[in-house]
Amino acid sequence: MGNPRHQVQREFNARHQDCTDRVVPAIANETLTTEMIANPGRIRLSTLATVFAVMLISSGATARDITAQEAIEQVHRETTAKVLSVQTLSIGKRKIYRIKILTAGGQVRVLEIKADQ
Questions:
Q1: What is the CB neighbour count within 10 angstroms for residue 52?
Q2: Short-list 64, 80, 63, 74, CA closest to 97
Q3: What is the pTM of this model?
């Protein structure tokens, strides 16, 4: 029957080759397969880096809110109107600045600026 050690080595080599034949082409093509999900250690580092970068960029939605003063400055940059008053409204987790202005034509207008621009 042959050396048991050689038999174990042949079986290991056959299983390794079978696994390599199925997984390596998927990694080379950057295709995420169920095999790769089941064995996450086989995913290439560049794929993981790409996923991490996308997650990091998408978390940019938590940017800081502008202040009431910054909202007033925005109104001054975009109009020639005089600011009469500022009111901060909280709607759920969102903050809105309601800014009352006097236009050059003498009309009173109310602008709403979202704090999370």
A1: 10
A2: 74
A3: 0.47
Q: How many domains is the chain partitioned into structurally?
A: 2
DSSP β-bridge partners for residue 54 = none
Closest by alpha carbon to 24, among 43, 49, 45? 43
Residues 8 and 55 both lie in one domain: yes
Q: Which domain holds residue 93?
A: 68-114
- The reply to whether 75 and 54 lie within a common domain is no
Q: What is the pLDDT of residues 21-58, one digit of tens each?
A: 555 554 455 555 555 555 555 545 555 556 556 565 65
Q: Given this model, what pLDDT does residue 78 score?
A: 92
Beta strands, E only, 13-107: 82-91, 94-102
92 shares a domain with 47:
no
